[in-house]
Amino acid sequence: MKIQGNTFIITGGVGGIGSEVAAGIVKNGGKVGIFDIVDTKVGNEKIASYGDKAHYSKVDISSSADVEKAVAEVVEKLGNLKGVVHLAAVSIKREYTNDLADSIEDFQKMWQINTFGTFIVDAHVADAINKPLNHPNGDDKHADFWTTDEERGVIINFSSAAAHGLYSRTLCYGPLKLAVNGISRTLSDFLGPSGIRVNTISPSIVMTAMNATLGNYFQDDLTSHAAFPRVPVPASEIFRTVKFLIESKWINGEDIRVDGGWRLVVNRPKGETDARSLAPGLE
């Protein structure tokens, strides 16, 4: 799939990684539909430098109606929709205690946004790409099942290194990102007949504004448990991986780890402080 001349939706598109991905797509000749939760005025200011190559929509990705409306706007304003880079997610942190039920509310909210939201976004983007063939008469009647050998779209969902190293600090976040991998793998098979590829990217720590205050903790962990390089991933490197997946026709149903070989572990040396108590919070 070419970037040039095509439109891609970027969820979380005004954030650190999202803005880097959006800028990269525009620089490579594409257009971007930016979804985020900031007010429309702020969002439009963020994308002003892209001119007519971008459209901003304030979107709650856990709302099917919100996403469906916003996707339709992108198709109308920019045209030629070919995929989505789905970055939007939340990480809710609380202090460590031995009470497990304290995390139930956090789990529910992260599930609603990070996991259910992934399915919603993917479904509406895929249906928008397929609409001319799924509903050739422009109504709600489904066309007969069809298949194609044409590459027609690309979906890239963002998982996390936490999905591969399920441990206690990411009690809710890790399993729910693992569910994103499962959704993506299944959708790659479901959407294969319609020529839409689905993959995931699993980064380790990317030093964005969200993680800026946690730098020392994560740097210590990367130094101890990553292979190489033992530093946070630059947002620019994430775009390189996005570009690779958009342009690589033969990559489908895969998860790419961008983590420098970081492996999530919990050290519990006998007689010393439990390392979890030093963590930035239980997610």
UniProtKB/TrEMBL annotation:
GO terms for cellular component: mitochondrion. Keywords: Oxidoreductase. One of its GO terms (biological process) is fatty acid beta-oxidation. This is Piso0_001215 protein. One of its GO terms (molecular function) is 2,4-dienoyl-CoA reductase (NADPH) activity. The gene is Piso0_001215. It comes from the Eukaryota.
